[in-house]
């Protein structure tokens, strides 16, 4: 996925008006065909094409066509809100996509016309206060029969999901920790990693059987199964617009999947040693891959290695919205340009970081160092506080509401309500 630019958006607009889509009634009935034709002209899947396709897939394009003789502002507002709620895309993109389809059908709108501002698909500004050490008593979530290997909050923070050696995936209430559901039978071996799609209703899991499963949380059923890796699937990451899935495996390979079509669209590797962690750029331009001795940065468009950073020991990676990369290893934790040897920030007391996450609403960086939870100021690298848990931390995640979840070595999950500096 390329970074959104005004010129690229104009190219996609022109494409929609071109002779390729003269029979637009046909395209409103076949969303997969629309996407295939679009990707012939734009193989890098720009987000402008993706959101136009979502209008077709959700059936809204058909509704626009049937109403094209007379469309009022209220109808447009309903279509925009419906597209946002059903797909999870940013409202600015929904506004742009609906207006492009209205224009494509030659419809005239009655009422006030909107001003459209296109924004890149990055996270919201983190403008809340930094996290401070909490005095609240954590909730202990029990349910897994064997070790937990990964945890993940849904994008809106309502649900917490966990997976582990008992081959199950469990869903918990993200606020009070109440058990909601469990999925069994999706993998024939340990479920090693999970990741939410940005729509918030689709959960992806990777297992030691080498397969990737998609779960529809509205129905509680598995919807797709992908099998390309020859060993454990160890890590999963979605692009910020949800169109691309990256998977890493013990077979030393990275696979890239087009989410809408479930097609394998590329591979990177094999790498010289085990893939320890991956970090996908917010704009989908590069992928960082940590192996035993180095972090390699790859251009996804060119499928070429662009930079190498030497590390010592096991590494933890995290891409930041400003385009920089966090790299933690046995020597410390730094924030840097992914293509430069120079770093901008060095973090205090951070040697041995094995898992890094960002607070979704403040410039707080949270890390797990064996048995310690560490919190830093992302802007300065200063250590805000740390807490010893007295158990090895296997995974860590945080939601927008301030709940911090820790997966511990004794099969339990700790759910902690954080506090903020005033």
Task: Describe the protein in words.
- This protein has helices spanning 6-17, 24-27, 31-41, 47-57, 60-66, 73-87, 91-104; strands at residues 71-72, 109-110, 131-132, 139-141, 148-153, 159-164, 169-173, 179-183, 191-196, 202-207, 211-216, 221-227, 233-238, 244-249, 254-258, 263-268, 277-280, 286-290, 294-299, 304-310, 316-319, 325-329, 332-336, 343-346, 355-358, 364-369, 372-377, 383-388, 393-398, 403-408, 413-417, 419-420.
- It has 422 residues and is α+β, with helices and mostly antiparallel strands.
- β19 (294-299) and β20 form a beta hairpin.
- The protein is globular and about 65 Å long.
- Residues 1-5 and 109-125 have low confidence and may be disordered.
Classify the secondary structure makeup into a structural class: alpha+beta
Instruction: Estimate what percentage of residues fall within beta strands.
Output: 35-45%
What gyration radius follows from the Cα positions, in whole Å?
A: 22 Å
Helix content: 10-25%
Q: Order the strands across the largest sheet as they lie in space.
A: 4-31-30-29
Q: How many helices does DSSP assign?
A: 7
Overall geometry: globular
Low-confidence regions: 1-5, 109-125
The main pleated sheet reads as:
4 strands, antiparallel
Distance between the termini: 39 Å
Q: Return the average pLDDT rounded to an integer.
A: 85
